[in-house]
Structures are given as structure tokens and as C-alpha cells.
Amino acid sequence: xxxxxxxxxxxxxxxxxxxxxxxxxxxxxxxxxxxxxxxxxxxxxxxxxxxxxxxxxxxxxxxxxxxxxxxxxxxxxxxxxxxxxxxxxxxxxxxxxxxxxxxxxxxxxxxxxxxxxxxxxxxxxxxxxxxxxxxxxxxxxxxxxxxxxxxxxxxxxxxxxxxxxxxxxxxxxxxxxxxxxxxxxxxxxxxxxxxxxxxxxxxxxxxxxxxxxxxxxxxxxxxxxxxxxxxxxxxxxxxxxxxxxxxxxxxxxxxxxxxxxxxxxxxx
Length: 268
Fold this sequence. Notes:
56% of the residues lie in helices and 4% in strands. By secondary structure, it is mostly helical. Strand 2 and strand 3 form a beta hairpin.
């Protein structure tokens, strides 16, 4: 009944084969190292988990990052309790996450970013114009490209969807399809570069440009914000982005002043 065993069982049951599998393994490793892989899962207490939270804070983990790690721990405890009924189920104190300002890419910033080398430029262009996740980009194959859309399977929310392509994304996909068919490769993926390598290349570029707060996920936020700002309805944006609930999409709704401008007309 060790922590290591129950993390593995939880991984096999809920995360293996999903888009979040790699991130789950990283969190599992950190939990194993901190608490000890051989520690009995029944020995986990609220006090010990609070100490884990303080440990993560000392490492300068943001509250949102801490909560993602606590979610992994909580899932493991819930599953273990369902299967063997733990002697005691500790309380987990989730950390308050500040809403803050959501980061977007401005047209001026995009022009600077597009001076990157071809592989990185292609990846960023697709992320910006489609709003797909980094993990979804890494799984695209030739068979997923159909007419004017990219078909996405095994997404984070397990919601298969089709995303329209802009003209420049169509050009990138066509060029990469030709390249994939002309060279001998073990991978059928159009973006075979390891996603962690992509992150490293992007980190070098963003630090060079001084965009320390612009991560790869910023491009997804930018797609949603641009769709809203240009008059696309919240319902369409939800379907495009693959948000499971409308409340997620509503985070961007304030970016469109159109509804407010239309409403003020009744006061004239």
C-alpha cells in the first residue's frame, strides 16, 4: 500500500494514454521523491501535506502549479480510498489562485516572434492560428488534415473536435506533408520535434526578446481572445477551443466591447 504503488495504479486507471500523461508522470515523480516512494499511503496526514505545500512555496511554485500537484495527490488518495478504504483520508488545502491579467500576443509581438527559425515559426504559427494545445500539435499526422480543418483526437478534455485552418496554416501543413513523405522517418507526425524540445527553443527566443511572461500556452489564449474581439460568438469559440464548459470561454468575453456598445443604444 505504498504511495508509489497507488500513484502507479492511479496513473494506469486515469492518465495513461491521455494528453496529460507526461505531465502526470512528472508530478508523480515529485510526490514520490518528497514523501518517499515506500511510504504507506495510510501514513499521509494533513500536516504532512501542508509541509509539502510549504516545500513547493519555498521552491517558488505558483499557487496554480501547487494546486495541479495537489490534484494529482488528491486523485491518488481518492482512488486508494475507493479500493482499500484508507484508515484516514487527509484534508488537502488548495491554494488560492489569483485571477490576474491573462497574457496575449499583440500584433507587434507576433512580428518579432516570426523571425524565429523555420521549425519554431511553423509551430508558433499553427498554435496562434488554431488555438490548439502544445500536446495536440505534437500528435498531428497527415491523416488528420482534411480539406480545410485539422481533426483532433485524444484531446485533454476527451472532446474530439475539428479546427479550421487559416491559409498560412494550410501552407505549413501542405509543406510538412510533402516533407514527411519524401524523407525516411520513423514518425508519421507532421511536427515530430519533441514537445519538450519545442519548449526549450521557445524559451530561448522569449527570453531574448524580453517576453519572460509569454509561455507556449499564451498562443492558445491569444486565439480565443482574437476570435472574441473580432465578433465570433462565445458558443462558437467554446466549440473551436474545445472547452468543456462555457464558463471557461467566458473568461474572454469581457474582451469584446461590442455587446456593451450595442446595449448602450437603449439609453440614447
